Amino acid sequence: MIRSSVFRVQACFFACILATMALGLAGCDSFQQRLRFLDLSAGAEFSDARFYVRAGAPERTLSSRDVNYDGTVDLNREQSKLDYFYSVGFFPGPVPFVGSDGIGDYMRMSFTLNSPRTFRGTLHNYPDDGRVTTNPMTATTNLLFPLPDAIGRRTEFVFEEYRAYITLFFPHFRSENWYFGIGHSFGQSRYNLDLLEGTNRVASSRNAWMALHALQVVYGYRIGRFFEEGLFHQTYLYFELIADSPNRTRLDVNLQRADGLPAASLYYRNTYTRIGIRKTVDLWTTDSVVKEREEIEKQIEEEDRRADDEQGAEEEKNKEEENEAGEEKEKPAESTEPEQAQPTEYLP
Q: Are 160 and 117 in contact (CB under 8 A)?
């Protein structure tokens, strides 16, 4: 009951964010301009998936386990995984109801849908270290002082997730050839989780949802400046760091310890370090290309017509000059000798 209520609150919160963004976009005169640019990203990433439980007061003070500074206990060892990724989303634009004036010039909002990811590994001593007991004192002692990882309980996990989130960047700086932003991401993750011991599946979750909150830092440089024409015109080489916030939402896992009590809630967080290529695509590029092509064709026709007119005028001028030259040749040559005076005759 509690988990379903929490999920409803998270879903309503995410829906409110989407509704606010949609209303903000719908209230703008340039609705098409806000949604016309689509980002396609691909590259390589290092990811570090962590599964952990929250330690209680006795564990933080007495337990032999390594308790983190935020009161959590990691169940799997650090393992950076190199993988490829791709994502689609909308180019960061002005925040709805804020605009681009004043402080709004340093704020941007974007939407991202990530490719699915799969993580595999081992959980150590979860939900307990494997020792069976019905004595409450012994069970508490086993919880505070579990067996070493090498001989304790080992549970294999297979975790798959899809992420969709909205990022609010503040501050966000940009110029013609670069951009830099720091922001908070809010969204949802749809995941599948299997916990296996040998060939037995001890727990499973299918198509479950988890709220997301992460800190994001991104820097991009427009390599398209070196390709002013062609496919790479609006292309960025970018570096991105995404760190999930801890202690947010637990995974939907139902397990029992050996003493019959429910297992501690299982949490998940991840850290992504990415480098990749981001290509901005104009969704209305077909119409714009057609219009641009029509304008170019009109210009070419006008230039051809102008060239034909100039050529015709030049040919007429040449013909007139040739006619004048022919007429001058046909005229008899005028004598340049002075006329002799005729003798005057006198009548008798």
A: yes
The answer to whether residues 194 and 294 belong to one domain is no
Task: Give exposure, 48-70, as e/b (b: 16+ Cβ within 10 Å).
Answer: bbbbbbbbeeebeeebebebeee
Low-confidence ranges of the chain (pLDDT < 50): 1-7, 9, 11, 13, 19-31, 290, 346-348
Q: What is the number of helices (H) and of strands (E) in the chain?
A: 5, 10
Which residues pair with residue 164 across a beta bridge? Answer: 113, 188
In terms of domains, do 193 and 245 share one? yes
Within-domain flag for 89: yes
β-strand partners of 123: 155
- CATH at 196: 2.40.160.20
Q: What is the pLDDT of residues 61-114, one digit of tens each?
A: 766 677 777 778 888 887 788 889 999 988 787 888 787 788 888 898 999 999
Decide: 249 and 201 in contact? Cβ < 8 Å: no
Q: Which domain holds residue 308?
A: 289-313
Q: How far apart, in whole angstroms, are the C-alpha atoms of residue 226 and residue 125?
A: 54
Q: Cβ(267)–Cβ(251) under 8 Å? A: yes
Burial call 241-252: b when 16+ CB within 10 Å, e when fewer: ebbbebeebbbb
State pTM to two decimals. Answer: 0.69
> Euclidean distance between the first and final Cα of the chain, in Å?
160
